[in-house]
Design a protein that fits this description.
The protein is of the alpha+beta class. The chain contains six helices and six strands; from the N terminus they run ααβαββαβαββα. It has a single domain, classed as Trna Endonuclease, Chain: A, domain 1 (3-Layer(aba) Sandwich). Pfam families: SseB.
Length: 133
């Protein structure tokens, strides 16, 4: 599927990120974000079977300039295409469900890394701030 580069749709998740840029303790914005679906790029080396498995999500891990591993997720196709134009496959995953299964090692999560108001959380932050019952 071709992803339009100018599709910068303002989703509820995008609005929550904008609100958190103003007030990092905005619980309504955190709840909105945790309840939102995000686009998780499917790594190129993931098989079609793994990419379609509803019980498992292959996390794309990128190295940040400091060497720290980070998983990029996005609130819209436009945000993803702006930062990772080469990505051809993705999965829609509820952010709260992803957070509840987040690994305990030093793996950060970044939401809309190329946007005006990105959000990067440590592994602990992902599990405590976004994992909602």
């Amino acid at each position: 599927m071709e992803i339009p580069a100018n599709d910068h749709t303002t989703t509820p998740a995008r609005q929550a990120l904008d609100a958190l840029a103003v007030n990092t303790e905005d619980t309504a914005a955190l709840d909105t974000l945790a309840g939102s679906e995000v686009l998780v790029p499917v790594p190129d080396d993931a098989s079609q079977e793994d990419a379609a498995d509803p019980g498992a999500v292959a996390l794309p891990v990128l190295e940040q300039p400091g060497g720290d591993p980070v998983v990029p997720v996005f609130t819209s196709e436009g945000e993803m295409a702006g930062l990772l134009p080469f990505v051809s496959r993705y999965r829609l995953v509820p952010l709260g469900a992803l957070a509840s299964q987040w690994p305990t090692d030093d793996l950060s999560l970044t939401i809309d890394a190329g946007s005006e108001h990105p959000l990067t959380l440590t592994s602990e932050g992902v599990r405590t701030l976004l994992a909602r019952p």
